[in-house]
């Protein structure tokens, strides 16, 4: 089965990317979520390209920040990279590219709001980068990645530790006189596409929920939600816990 670009949306996507694919089938695969492939049958999903793209984005960002910020030590470089390549960051640039409107989803995933899910958007962005790397090489991939992420890098580099919400939450909790945060993390999904859900509790009350592709990322997202919740609420009775998607619970096994 091949996707015919009847409405010209894929051509428009290539224009937004600033690159015309020599092998359009790579881009077609990059936009094929596993939920669509399960329904269509005998159609390769974008998971392998996502795996490749994850590594390519990591190399591009690592090389850039290593050379651009010689004053940062290894720990700050690691924090900066983690912020730039996080699910939230990649999902944002995916939205800027309108990937949600062109990714191919199964009917159930589409109906449940899959086009707005940060995990699907971030994975699709990585898959597109993997396809771009295979089709045009590292230089083409680097041009696009840095064009989309350079502003995030510059902003995050001003305070590489500023995204460490676990530390910030710990400090806030101590100042407020509450017990130390306790994290509960549960993983789901296959090994090659693992997702983690983290819940953070303070004084036995859940105050943050986060989803991530690693335990650390999920905990950081839960801490971020909890930090904002506590900052905006005057007392523990008024804490209203929300996850990254704005709901109290989120399924991480798309």
Describe the structure.
This protein starts with 8 loop residues before the first helix and ends in a 22-residue tail after the last helix. It has 254 residues and is mainly alpha-helical. Helix 2 (24-30) packs across helix 8 (118-157) and helix 4 packs parallel to helix 8. It folds into two domains: 9-157, Ribonuclease III domain (Ribonuclease iii, N-terminal Endonuclease Domain, Chain A); 165-238, 2-Layer Sandwich (Double Stranded RNA Binding Domain), CATH 3.30.160.20. Mean pLDDT is 85; it is low at 240-254. The chain has helices spanning 9-17, 24-30, 34-40, 47-68, 74-84, 87-96, 107-111, 118-157, 165-176, 215-232, and strands spanning 182-188, 195-202, 205-212.
């Amino acid at each position: 089965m091949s996707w015919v670009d009847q409405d010209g949306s894929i051509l428009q996507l290539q224009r937004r990317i600033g690159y015309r694919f020599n092998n359009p089938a790579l881009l077609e695969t990059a936009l094929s979520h596993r939920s669509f492939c399960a329904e269509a049958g005998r159609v390769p999903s974008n998971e392998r390209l996502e795996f490749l793209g994850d590594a390519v984005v990591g190399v591009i960002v690592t090389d850039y920040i290593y050379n651009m910020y010689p004053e940062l030590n290894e720990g700050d470089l690691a924090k900066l990279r983690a912020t730039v390549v996080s699910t939230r960051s990649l999902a944002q640039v995916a939205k800027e590219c309108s990937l949600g409107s062109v990714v191919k989803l199964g009917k159930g995933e589409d109906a449940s709001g899959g086009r707005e899910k940060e995990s699907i958007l971030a994975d699709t962005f990585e898959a597109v980068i993997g396809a771009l790397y295979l089709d045009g090489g590292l230089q083409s991939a680097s041009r696009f990645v840095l064009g989309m992420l350079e502003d995030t890098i510059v902003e995050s580099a001003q305070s590489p530790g500023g995204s460490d919400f676990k530390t910030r939450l710990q400090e806030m909790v101590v100042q407020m006189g509450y017990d130390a945060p306790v994290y509960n993390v549960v993983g789901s999904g296959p090994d090659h596409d693992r997702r983690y859900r983290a819940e953070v509790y303070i004084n036995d009350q859940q105050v943050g929920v986060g989803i991530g592709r690693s335990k650390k990322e999920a905990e950081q997202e839960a801490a971020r939600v909890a930090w904002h919740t506590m900052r905006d609420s005057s007392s523990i009775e008024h804490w209203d816990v929300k996850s990254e998607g704005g709901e109290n619970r989120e399924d991480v096994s798309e």
